[in-house]
Design brief:
Blueprint lengths: L1 E4 L4 H13 L4 E5 L19 E5 L5 H11 L3 E4 L6 H6 L2 H23 L3 H6 L1 E7 L24 H20 L3 E6 L2 E2 L8 H11 L3 E4 L5 E3 L1 E2 H14 L5 E4 L4 E3 H15 L12 E4 L14 H7 L7 H14 L1 H7 L3 H10 L4
Parallel strand pairs: 1-2, 1-4, 2-3, 4-5, 5-6, 6-11, 7-10, 8-13
Antiparallel strand pairs: 9-12
Bound molecules: nicotinamide-adenine-dinucleotide and 2'deoxy-thymidine-5'-diphospho-alpha-D-glucose (DAU).
Nicotinamide-adenine-dinucleotide binds next to helix 1, strand 2, helix 4 and strand 5.
Length: 354
């Protein structure tokens, strides 16, 4: 069995669902259920004995040690993190606690467990840490895409905290021999994406007749990856990645934010036209830029393709259409997450900007 952390969040829940759809190996899912954790994502596994859900913190060393001793996983996959850049700008503390201190405590518990394993299990054990392309900083227009050898230049409290966690993971391999793998991924999109992030926020606001907020000039570039492709990449790295290595994961889909939003509007115009016959693009609203906003990210995923034969299955065009359709088909999910704490967050973030 494997231990997944943060498996009630966007990528983690997609990973758990895909994992159990692909094979029968059980999953213990440790998630603190912050605002971003949503057990509804895992509703289809409610009666599935292969999925054990534990609400708890990766920084709770006793709890993690107990779970490891009880379930004896052959691998740990760490998704748990504070993940939203804007929140890290408003309040970095939680990012330091979970992404740095939490990862450290998790590594300590995993190291103690791994040290006590019999030799064959010790050799086969893997600890996979899920990280981000944001640790590499921002690219100029003509710079080559990020490679695994790029130096770390994180620019936001979020990316700095992820960079710190990556360094700890690296150090636990070099110092203690812990068999780690790290993946650095570009922007994901797809089902169960919390509507504080650009793509689900725009779909939600469009359907609600609200403004579609574009930070600055909207010409910032992100490299979009369909979440299920990210999940298949992680499975592949876990299966065959070289211990101690890092692998960049990306979709080869660089898009400017404004183009992404216009694409979403065009798909919505086709699938769910506005009652007044106007395009959803009429709702596009330019707002104040994000402080320290990184201009461009792009991932060179060549190492993963050359070494492990992984390639994304979706293009941006196919993935974004599936995503819009998923949100149209799941209005109840969106309604449930857009209550309470999330509303307050929208007020903090956009109240003064529109
Ligand atoms: P998310 O915010 O949707 O989910 C994070 C999950 O972690 C939530 O379920 C939350 O409850 C849980 N969590 C938070 N703090 C915890 C703690 N202390 N202990 C246990 N659980 C905790 O994030 P996501 O978008 O699914 O991202 C998952 C991972 O992938 C993160 O490490 C993120 O940095 C990384 N990543 C995300 C993207 C992206 O585009 N979303 C891209 C690259 C890398
Ligand atoms: O690159 C990987 C990263 O992608 C992950 O590590 C992060 O966890 C994930 O949140 C994501 O970070 P971004 O900051 O790129 O994602 P976000 O959806 O917040 O923003 C995408 C782009 O859109 C970014 O340039 C900011 C812009 N934006 C975002 C929002 C929420 C807007 O223009 N308007 C908005 O309302």
């Amino acid at each position: 069995m494997i231990l997944v952390t943060g498996g009630a969040g966007f990528i983690g829940s997609n990973f758990v669902l895909d994992w159990l759809a692909e094979n029968d190996e059980p999953v213990v899912n440790l998630d603190k259920l912050t605002y971003a954790g949503n057990r509804e994502n895992l509703a289809s596994l409610a009666a599935d004995p292969r999925h054990v859900f534990i609400q708890g913190d990766i920084g709770d060393a006793d709890l993690v040690a107990r779970l490891l001793a009880e379930h004896r996983p052959r691998a740990v996959v760490n998704f748990a993190a504070e993940s939203h850049v804007d929140r890290s700008i408003h309040g970095p503390e939680d990012f330091i606690q979970t992404n740095i201190v939490g990862t450290f405590r998790l590594l300590e518990a995993v190291r103690a467990y791994w040290n006590g394993l019999p030799e064959a299990e010790k050799t086969a054990f893997r600890c996979l840490h899920v990280s981000t392309d944001e640790v590499y900083g921002s690219l100029g227009k003509d710079d080559p895409a990020f490679r695994e050898t790029n130096r770390y230049e994180p620019n936001s409290p979020y990316s700095a905290s992820k960079a710190a966690s990556d360094h700890l993971v690296r150090a636990y391999h070099h110092t203690y021999g812990l068999p780690v793998l790290t993946t650095n991924c570009s922007n994901n999109y797809g089902p169960y994406h919390f509507p504080e992030k650009l793509i689900p926020l725009v779909i939600h606001n469009a359907l609600q007749g609200k403004p579609l907020p574009i930070y600055g000039d909207g010409q910032q570039i992100r490299d979009w990856l369909y979440v299920k492709d990210h999940c298949s990449a992680i499975r592949r790295v876990l299966e065959a990645g070289r211990v101690g290595e890092t692998y960049n994961v990306g979709g080869w889909n660089e898009k400017a934010n404004l183009d992404v939003v216009q694409t979403l509007c065009a798909i919505l115009d086709e699938l769910k036209p506005r009652a007044d016959g106007q395009s959803y693009a009429a709702q596009i609203t330019y707002v104040k830029d994000r402080p320290g906003h990184d201009r461009r990210y792009a991932i060179d995923a060549g190492k993963l393709e050359r070494e492990l034969g992984w390639k994304p299955a979706e293009t941006f065009e196919t993935g974004i259409r599936k995503t819009v359709q998923w949100y149209l088909d799941h209005p109840g999910w969106v309604e449930n997450v857009t209550s309470g704490a999330y509303r307050q967050w929208l007020e903090t973030q956009y109240g003064g900007k529109q």
